[in-house]
Design goal:
The chain has 196 residues and is of the alpha+beta class. Helices cover 70% and strands 13% of the residues. Strands 1-4 form a two-stranded antiparallel ribbon.
Length: 196
Amino acid sequence: MNVLRTYLIRSFLFSAVFFGCNTIKAQSKNTLSYFLETAKSNSPVLNDYNNQVISNKIDSLKLKATYGFIVTGEGTAGYSPNIKGWGYDNALTNGQSLFAGVRVAKEFISRNNLNTRLAGINASIAQVLAQKNISIQTLNKQIADQYIATYASQQQYNLSREIIHLLDQEDIVLKKLTQSAVFKQTDYLTFKVTLQ
């Protein structure tokens, strides 16, 4: 029993320390900038544009590397087994062979050709960045429009609640006036139907 109590106390203390240190962060502000930043960071279209820019930059580096020195190496080894007269004939195959080679190559082209290709890649990057900016502006507009529409709906809802509260208060007053014969019962019933 004592061990169980010690275990429960330790568990409670561990839970208190764990939850005390790890505060749960809720969305504190429903501001337009919060929604805009969240949409930008979660947009698959914008992520695709970022990936296209990175891909074009890699293509540019690859193109620059292609016009440098290219070093390749290759090697082969062969062995023709002959055990107790069975297998390959050493007179025909030489028994074994080794080959190793290194090759250095460089393409000699004009500097203008490389610059033209690099300019084409840079133009592709600029085009993708322009499309990304257009997408950001479109996304900002759509979110701002939705934010404004939601805010208008919220204000309309608050106004409707306030009107209903005032009409309920008026209902109480008119009901008392109708009971004391100051207000006509037919007018009160008409008001009640309108209220409902």
